[in-house]
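Q: Sequence in, structure out?
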Amino acid sequence: MKYTLYCSFGKLEHNAGSHELAAVEHGSDIYDVTDALVRDVTEDLAEMSEYAGCKTTAFAPEPVQPFRKIKRYDYVMTGQVIPPNAPQNILIEYGIVEESE
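A: Exactly. Output:
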């Protein structure tokens, strides 16, 4: 399976057309690539100039819930920029598209 990770720069539902490709991972299922996706999100956040020097982390992927208005993604992840180096606790959602290879 192929897992394509997109950064939303906020919430998934906002400006879906402007989400940017962050990474592509390959594995047998989402659990096989979870560690790599968490690393991709934390590195993506750490490389953003506005978060330079801040500690970053990410939560494991979860299936997109039916109440979400965006249907483009199969999974969602949340990246976090952590105080005290960050001005506040910042959460950024990432969408994941799952495709057969």
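The first helix runs from residue 30 to 47.
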